[in-house]
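A reminder before we start the practical. When you read a complex entry, don't treat the lines as separate problems. The point of joint prediction is that each chain is placed relative to the others, so the output describes one connected object in space. Small molecules and nucleic acid strands, if listed, are placed in the same frame. In the example below there are three entries. Take a minute to note the order of the lines before looking further.
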Amino acid sequence: MSHAATNPTVVAAHNGHHHDPHLAHHFETPEQQYQSGKLGMWVFLATEILMFGGLFCAYSVYRHNHPEVFEFAHKALDPVLGGINTVVLITSSLTMAWGVRAAQLGQKRLLIWCLALTIIGGAGFMAIKSIEYNTKWKHNLFPGSYNVYSKTFTGEETPPLDLAALNSEGHHAPAHEAGEAAPHPVKTIYDTRLVPHDPNAGTPDEAKIKPSFATSTGMVTQAPPAAEEHLIYTDLGRDRHHVTVFFSIYFLMTGLHGIHVLVGMSLIYWLLRRAIASQARFFADGLAVTGTGLFFVYLGWLIPLTFLLIGGAIVAAIGIVIALMFAGRALRATGEGEFDPTYFTPVDLVGLYWHLVDLIWIFLFPLLYLIR
Amino acid sequence: MSYANPPASAHRIDDGAHVEGAVHVHAVSPRLLLTVFGCLLVLTVVTVAITKVPLGAFAIWAALGIAVIKATLVLLYFMHLRWDTPFNAIIFVSALLFVAIFISATIGDSNEYKVNYLPPPGSEIQAPQ
Amino acid sequence: MTAHAGTLPIGQAGDHEHGDNYLTHGRGIKSWLFTLDHKRIGIMYMILVCANFLLGGIFAIALRTMLWSPLRMFDANGNPTGVTQEQINASHNLYNHFFTLHGAVMVFLFIIPSIPAILGNFVLPMQLGAKDVAFPRLNLLSFWIYMIGAVFFVYILLSGVLHAAFGISLPGGWGLDTGWTFYTPYSTARAQGAVVAATLGAFILGFSSILTGVNFIATVHMLRPKGMTWFRMPLFIWAIYSTAIIQILATPVLAITLLLLVAERTLGVGIFDPALGGDPVLYQHFFWFYSHPAVYIMILPAMGVISDVIVAFSRKHVFGYNFIAFSSIAIALLSFIVWGHHLFVSGQSALANAIFSMLTFSVAIPSAIKVFNWISTLYKGDVRLKTPMLYALGFIFLFTLGGLTGLFLGALSVDIYLTDTYFIIAHFHYVMMGSTLFAFIAGMYYWWPKMFGKMTNETLGKIAFCFVFFGFNLTFFPQFVMGARGMPRRYASYPIKFVTEHHLSTTGAYTLGFGLVLVGIDWMYSLKRGKKAPENPWGANTLEWRCSSPPPHDNFATTPLVGDPYDLHGWVYDPATNGWVNPELGHRSSDSPSAPSHH
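Here is the predicted structure of the whole assembly.
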């Protein structure tokens, strides 16, 4: 990415041998270089779409085949936090778009503000995301063996019958309070095949899954739940062992998206450094170290882990010292950053990447949190 | 697509001082940015509110439709596609097209073959828990 | 193979007044490893890719050697041979590691990067009359990613072979025995060894491929000189462009598939493993959505090479330019809607089987269009059987056989009988090796004078071709026969009735290997003792032949004049320089300085 590009068609027009530092030797005009960079970025975004496309495909196949599982399991997600995160990300998209405008117009101080706000938006998104992940962790809803519904689950807890209570009872409600516990899943995956076992035996749903010989497969044995019916675990019948797949898909999708948010934040930080005058860049580094430290303090409080708390506080303190040392120079040298109307391609390209991250979340939010 | 011609949609900066050597790109006005942002917020509220309405099987399509509108707004205004060379839009749309081919063929097939994996009649009780 | 690069024996003879070419432009290993010059990056790819080819080839020979006399507990007369079950198990385990290493190295490390990364990097910008690719730093990055991925991947696979053969455990795992396809649930639930590490290696390599594709697309769009419209581009560029489309649209799906596989194996997320409620057919959909188009990543650049070579040695304008160009794009797009033909017996639904079978036939149309146009180009041409042309003609013959047998396999009913037999092995070796490798060698011979400024030895090249061509057919034609008779693939042993075919095949493999060694000797010899190459040794009209051999650092001081790339009128042979000159262009002979006047 990041090909130094400038766009002054005027300069290029009347000087064939200009020594524009941002124009690479194999381009003839800055315009050509700028358009190449954008084309390359869009092609790269296409590859990102295809990569997420694989996860959307897995999502679609499982949702199509097991709609009740998604209906049941998505209640573990908090639509309020998801909604707040949507707003946070949209806002950071706005500040990014405004930053591109500021760079194009040479409004250097505004650009610094916009980039800083965008990073803060990204950090806010990750902070809220970590609250959500923390809730899942506490309720044993991580993928694979860490999921209480998984056949390979290693813990002692029993799977809750209803996940809706997770959000209404606050974030620290233990799983078993969420309702009557279901029979504990058999832990080994092979012996279940040998032992005939009716998972619903003795439950009120037992009658629903008795075989029907009306169809060729005999499987339309369970009346589909009415639209308004509140699904609980035992309603899922033989689909219930797909519950863990929902959580796997949730974590893979939001996890990959979160990695993209972090990459985007790093790229914007790189822009921010260049947008600040060169003699004051350590000021930005100090702020970044402070932010990272504070994030670890937050994680240490959330999990909770004392050493994260203390370590984060130390890092934050170091960051504040660095920032204060260079604050004077930074304040004197505002408006001397690298980007101006003749050279803003990196801002433009990173902006495209950041908006794509936003774009993907726009689809993830309703698909994961708002299933009906 | 020859570089010799600046993109057809390019025109001068809509506001701000003209800088020598300045850019042939469109800087989006603050008013437009804020309007798009407002629309995105409203649509986010709508997409949450619509889950309270019992739409049945239509709900997923309503949610996806709103998401598509939001995505289009971001693409056109935040990502400048409206003023960009059309080829960049073509790249993006073709990526979506290939994702659509991938997902539709895979769902279609899994919908067809899943019956092959169900146990024969009368043996449901062997279904692992 | 070509470890000369550090010492730069070539191009230093002071035979050009300006003296400076890309090989001498900077010195020392750092000037290579951190170069932004597309030509040097191409040469570095060549060294690594050829080394990987050597590795994959050694294991191919090892496989065929094991199959000459597999361990048996009873001989043909039913008498015990004294071989124990444990020995047989160990030998089968070793065989599994061998074929996985051979397949994975050849696919991910040789065929996919071979033509695009080596010849595409070297030739494509010069055919455009450009100074470099659009993003030189990205280009260097994809080389580094390839190098790191290759080292990682080869280490994992070789550690498995060492473990299986000698019981040596290297840190990091015991290799891979899943085959290059990583099929679930074997790869996620049962396979021993370093599946996760190998998968991450392939994941890294995928990024190299993606970034190369991004670069080539931007280069073709943005760096065409004035006058080079889309339909004045050389057909090699069309082919590389089509390949790049596939690379950017398909490879990301492989990336996510491999990530899912890693998640499945480490966490047990249950998307693919039926024991956890997953769907193994879904994995095959994911995998082949990438890997079928990847087959065309392997063959399309080869077709581009052949188009250029055939024209130069037929001394005739290419026949049906537009058809060849559009058929490249058509193949690229069609490649995305035929992946289901890999799943005919995997549990895919009957409906999808029928649809994918029909769609598969449609790929035959653009492929056949190309073959017919090449043959029409040859027709009444002034055909010159130089070494590159021999490989090109070999390509047409072998690709036709490979393509037609592909139709057998695309036919649903036939495939159900032939799938997972040696027929498949023979089919895809005819297409992948018989076609892509032949085109790669053709392209290397064709552009070698431009790359190193030295001619290769024609006599040695032709002798080597005979060994390669006959060795190839001897190896793989018997596999069609035994496949049709029911010999299954991926088995370390076989019923005694297939012994003749297997012995023929192994003999062929040794012949082929010998031929390829001769090719390598020819290239080495050329670097040491080759005659100085003229600017345009073959009389082709594409732009890469308009700069000196080897090219100066910046390729062209001024962008050359663009015309019809296949209009060979005006080029006449000049015995004095052993090259071709075009007086109509007002062109200098190769001995006059080609003036890379420094900017």
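Discuss with your neighbour: The interface with chain C takes residues 1-4, 87, 94-95, 98, 101-102, 105-106, 108-110, 112-113, 116-117 of chain B (CB under 8 Å). What might explain this?
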